[in-house]
Design a protein that fits this description.
The chain is mostly helical. It has a single domain, classed as Bromodomain-like, CATH 1.20.1550. About 70% of the residues lie in helices and about 0% in strands. It has 7 helices and 2 strands; from the N terminus they run ααααααββα. Strands 1-2 form a two-stranded antiparallel ribbon. Strand 1 and strand 2 form a beta hairpin. The longest helix has 30 residues. The protein is globular, with a radius of gyration of 18 Å.
Length: about 170
């Protein structure tokens, strides 16, 4: 028996609105941590926010469009998943930097993201940021033993699942 309370039976539109809320909620929490807990984000954290914002926008577009066509649904799922996959890779790199021995992250660039964007070509900025820095290795926040990048990694997996499930289910 299908129950309306079962999330697996929720409409495409509802699931995609939920995905948008999750993405924008993650950004909202990151801003709360930044401005109320006074923890400044490292460049990798900022790139993860960008990936959440992009995924959230594509979730919102999918929710507003609410296509009946499987092709359109798969396109929306692909767009959200590509954004989330980019964020997942960035978060994975961030976790790897955090878990590396402390002397392995001694190559701190000392530059913030805004300065790098002003002073360097975008390709060089991305290369520098993805190498990581000492500030990216620092763990200031944990919940249940996981750092924030570890939690974002988990959230990106959930975002991908939430994007793909409505596109492939039979309904």
């Amino acid at each position: 028996m299908n129950s309306p309370m079962n999330p697996l039976n929720w409409s495409y539109r509802t699931l995609y609105f939920l995905g948008a809320i999750a993405c924008f909620g993650a950004i909202g929490y990151a801003l709360y941590v930044q401005y109320h807990m006074l923890m400044q984000p490292c460049p990798l954290c900022i790139l993860q926010r960008v990936a959440f914002a992009a995924a959230g926008v594509f979730f919102l577009i999918g929710a507003l469009h609410a296509p009946k066509s499987r092709a359109w649904r798969r396109l929306h799922a692909a767009l959200v998943s590509l954004c989330a996959l980019g964020g997942l890779l960035i978060a994975g790199r961030h976790v790897a930097i955090q878990l590396a021995p402390s002397d392995a992250t001694a190559f701190c660039s000392g530059m913030d993201l805004n300065y790098m964007l002003d002073a360097m070509p975008l390709r060089d900025v991305l290369t520098t940021v993805l190498k990581g820095s000492g500030e990216c290795a620092k763990i200031d926040w944990t919940f249940l033993g996981f750092s924030m990048p570890m939690w974002t990694l988990v959230l990106y997996v959930g975002v991908i699942a939430l994007a793909v499930y409505p596109a492939i289910r039979k309904s």
